[in-house]
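Sequence in, structure out.
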Amino acid sequence: MVSAALRSLLAGSLFGVGLTYAAVYFPLTIIDQLLVKNLHMLRVFLTGTASSTYGYYPVLLPISQYLIGYPLLTTFTHLNLLEASPRPPYTVGLFSPYDANIIGGLLIGVGMALTGACPGTVLPQVSIGFASAPLALAGAVIGGFLWVVVGANIRKPVPLASGEQWTLDGKTGLNKGQTTTGLVALCMTMVLLSTTIDGGRSYLAQGVQGGLAIGAAQAGSILLTSNSIGSSAAYEDAGKWILWLLRGRNSAKPPLQALSFAGGALLGSWVYARGSSIDIQDNKAISPISSVVGGICLAFGARLAGGCTSGHGISGMATQSVASFVTVAAMFGSGMLAIRFL
């Protein structure tokens, strides 16, 4: 039987290939996204969300039971391949049931502005050879360690009241089919409209194809591990391993699956990049201090929010979690503001 760690490694490799194929790893691409100069990243991630939400697999699904466009994550749930629980809101008890999502999202946005990366894309940046990426990754590991040491106890999930749902259908009163169709229509409309903002009509196909590659990686992750894609748990687990070693290895070993997924992303990106022509010479220089501090913000913020740009921005929105929409709005809102001053 293939071990869980090996299956996570394979799933991460698919994710790394998808990110690299989609070309969302360039620091300048992420920074230009926050400056609203180049919306390629938006097109990729919205298409990835839509393809994760609304997939049709006629080989797997009997048409008599599943309609065309039945939600991909829900489909896998019915096939007992995925436990697709929408991400819950988290609170630190300050001002909202979503305050941990909001504060964590704000930190992620600042980290994106400082590093030109997010918790997932820093992995292909390291594999491809961007000068700032190793320090950003080191900062993310430090952020994960800080979360384990001082942060994990400050965040609490918000309990559900009887019959309450933290999803779009639960909050709007619409049925799942209506909210799914509406979400996918909104994602693809925004993809099309984005080309009128940045003049990227000639690059529309590239963004859509990149998003479909992310959606394919999502399907691969579900089939291999029964989990949807997400990157930031690896930094928390790295922190747990550091703490375990510092305490003399006197307790049970921390888990390996999330680290295996991250290692697979590094490997998949490296293998794909070796067969591609990638020019990293004309990209934005990120200072060492920005890389480290930004990496800390990325990982600590993602753990506070319960997910990152991939965990909330693709997988979470695909399950129609309200907390994921709140987190994504906070991270991109703060990133767009922070980039003007940093």
